[in-house]
Amino acid sequence: MKKVLWFTAGIAVGIVAAHQLNQTAQGKRFFAELDAKIKDFSDALVDGYHEREDELRSAIGDAGDAVKKAATK
């Protein structure tokens, strides 16, 4: 129970600190840069996911074609 209390207190202190930091010009700039980096990362992650999904779908299609060829022989 004590650990949960400290965890919750840490989250609350972090939120208050972030809010105070966001009130300054330097803090706003920091959070804008952080937001841009997170967006770039998530976009790269989505692109990689879609690329891998296309590769797997292509491999499944190739395997399906091979099965059809073998079945017609």
Please give a structural write-up.
With 73 residues, the chain is mainly alpha-helical. Helices cover 93% and strands 0% of the residues. The protein has 2 helices and no strands.
- SSE pattern: HH
Number of structurally distinct domains:
1
Counted beta strands: 0
The span between the termini is 69 Å
Multimerization status: single chain
Sheet/helix structural class: mainly alpha
Strand content: under 5%
- Helix content estimate: over 70%
Radius of gyration: 25 Å
Instruction: Tell the overall outline.
Output: elongated
Number of helices: 2
Poorly predicted regions? none
Main sheet makeup: none
Return the average pLDDT rounded to an integer: 92
Summarize the structure.
This protein has 73 residues and is mostly helical. It contains two helices and no strands. The protein has one domain.
Helix-strand layout with pairing:
Layout: H1 2-21, H2 25-72
Give keywords.
elongated; mainly alpha; 73 residues; 2 helices; 0% strand
